[in-house]
Amino acid sequence: MRRVRREAFVPAALVHAAYDDRPLGIGFGQTISQPFIVAMMVQALELRGDEKVLELGTGSGYEAAVLAELARTVVTVECIPELAEAAKRALDDLGYSNIEVRMAGRSLGWPEGAPYDAIVVSAGAPRVPQVLLDQLAFNGRLVIPVGSRWQQELLRVTKLRQGNKTENLGGCYFVPLIGEGAWQQ
User: Fold this and answer.
1) Does the annotation mark 33 as catalytic?
2) CA–CA separation, 160 vs 140, rounded Å?
3) Position 183 in a domain
4) Rounded to 10 degrees, what is the CA torsion of 4, 20, 151, 179?
5) 37, 112, 156, 173: which sits with the fewest CB atoms below 10 Å from its CB?
6) What pLDDT score does 111 carry?
């Protein structure tokens, strides 16, 4: 995280608060997550450096940049075109060449690139979406907030051949995950 310039991912009016440990508005009703939660989610993925990672909820692109420092390849998916374009510009300007920014489709994730060694979701779902588990490689980790629209538990699901292992990492709050297998608009 120390190598990623967080101020490059926040609106100009909030640069002074870029390193505050709190979420900051980035427009379109979305936020850049607080640094602590980004660190917690990324650490929970247990990356070693050779993984292909899928991120749902590109937002500003900050978490994708952090992931790119720790993984071989990052595919990040965003449903708001303006945020996807701004994130791609910021990531390109900072020289990241191992990140693909994609526009979200009807289905959650990016099935065309599956399987992924790790998946991180920066929006809350009512349950763990099967469509994401289907995109996860065996022994892969999915980190996702699950619960109501107003309160979730951060879960790490490890996909195993003999059944998935789910761990609760604590309470959190994220904007709703929209799409098939999650909340409807």
Assistant:
1) yes
2) 8
3) no
4) -40
5) 112
6) 96
Cβ–Cβ under 8 Å, residues 91 and 99: yes
Q: Does 105 score more than 90 pLDDT?
A: no
Contact status, residue 26 vs residue 10, Cβ threshold 8 Å: yes
Query: Does 179 reside within a domain?
Result: no
Cβ atoms of residues 156 and 141 within 8 Å? yes
Does the model's pTM come out above 0.90? yes
Average pLDDT value over all residues in the chain: 95
- Of the candidates 154, 153, 149, the one whose C-alpha atom is nearest the C-alpha of residue 45 is 154
- List pLDDT tens digits, range 48-104: 999 999 999 999 999 999 999 999 999 999 999 999 999 999 999 999 999 999 999
**Count H helices, E strands: the chain?**
4, 9
**Annotated active-site residue in 33, 97, 107, 148:** 33
**21 burial type by CB count under 10 A (0-12 exposed, 13-18 middle, 19+ buried):** exposed
pLDDT at 124 over 80: yes
Alpha-carbon span 2 to 45, nearest angstrom: 18
Flag whether pLDDT at 185 surpasses 80.
no
What the block records as the tokens of 182 is 């999650």
- Give me the DSSP letters along 102-121: EE--SBSS-GGG--EEEEEE
Indicate which CATH number applies to the domain containing 15.
Answer: 3.40.50.150
- Count of structural domains, the chain: 1
